[in-house]
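Consider the tokenized backbone below.
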């Protein structure tokens, strides 16, 4: 079987203006699947963006493509010639570009298409993409319950266990780590977080993988790609104020590293942490400073077991699902 992989490259370095591949959760997921399927004896090829600031994650054949840097434009970018070049010799296509099943089905009627649904369906394009796919993949049972399709599989690929090998937890150097990347639209509510910690002597570090916040607030403390996992092991709390349908990837990494999350009260987070979780923050964020203070002062609460949501724990499910196609 020959499998083509098309990630949605959602991160762009704000200093260079180029794509980031190695920190992109979408690319990390598909690169892991490609490596697994190569080990199983299948041929794999992956699409990578022209003009990236790092080397590809994929350890298989790669084919370059010119992609728009802006995420809203990339979502609607259906380059027919590029797709023919990418998938002309493939039996199966695996993509977490949420609409890509539509042009792939039109171009390749016999192609088996695995369409990830990484964000909450909010338009008719999702309905068309899911109808065109042979298999729809989500990360959680909660997400599956939101889709009316019969051909939905749960692949709970939240973190790569290999990144944690040999890293041990010690005394926290940081009281809190602000987990999501920041952006111009303040979707992660970093502005409100900065206001909440103002005038507090809390040792805080930011991930800021794209460099957006670092360009504006160079006086803050930041980790980098190489030190990210170690930083989680050195942090007491992680803070994520993003209303995301499937945003538990970073939270699972943090829990695996021994951190206590402070999160926004969303349907997805309530399903994940349970209704009684003590460190939810409502959407208006007016009690954020108070919740942060409590989380720092009180013992670590009971947290979800993340041992079964690593990439490695999903391997058998992934192989069986793809081979059934």
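A designed sequence for it:
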């Amino acid at each position: 079987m020959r499998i083509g992989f098309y990630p949605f490259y959602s991160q762009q370095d704000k200093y260079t203006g180029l794509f980031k591949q190695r920190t992109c959760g979408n690319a990390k997921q598909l690169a892991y699947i490609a490596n697994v399927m190569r080990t199983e004896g299948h041929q794999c090829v992956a699409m990578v963006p022209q003009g990236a600031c790092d080397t590809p994650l994929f350890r298989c054949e790669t084919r370059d493509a010119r992609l728009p840097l802006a995420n809203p434009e990339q979502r609607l970018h259906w380059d027919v010639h590029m797709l023919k070049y990418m998938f002309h010799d493939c039996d199966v296509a695996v993509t977490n570009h949420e609409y890509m099943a539509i042009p792939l089905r039109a171009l390749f009627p016999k192609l088996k298409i695995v369409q990830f649904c990484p964000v909450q369906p909010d338009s008719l394009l999702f309905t068309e993409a899911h109808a065109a796919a042979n298999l729809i993949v989500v990360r959680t049972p909660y997400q599956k319950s939101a889709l009316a399709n019969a051909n939905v599989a749960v692949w709970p690929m939240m973190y790569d266990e290999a990144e944690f090998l040999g890293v041990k937890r010690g005394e926290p150097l940081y009281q809190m780590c602000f987990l999501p990347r920041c952006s111009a639209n303040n979707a992660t509510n970093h502005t409100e977080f900065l206001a909440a910690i103002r005038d507090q002597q809390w040792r805080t570090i930011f991930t800021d993988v794209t460099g957006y916040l670092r360009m504006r607030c160079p006086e803050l403390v930041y980790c980098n790609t190489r030190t990210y996992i170690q930083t989680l092991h050195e942090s007491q709390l992680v803070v994520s104020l993003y209303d995301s349908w499937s945003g538990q990837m970073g939270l699972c990494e943090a829990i695996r590293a021994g951190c206590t999350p402070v999160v926004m009260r969303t349907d997805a987070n309530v399903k994940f942490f349970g209704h009684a979780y003590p460190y939810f923050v409502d959407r208006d964020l007016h009690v954020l400073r108070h919740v942060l203070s409590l989380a720092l002062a009180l013992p670590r609460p009971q947290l979800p077991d993340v041992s079964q949501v690593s990439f490695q724990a999903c391997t058998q499910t992934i192989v069986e699902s793809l081979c059934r196609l």
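The CA atoms of residues 74 and 319 lie 29 Å apart.
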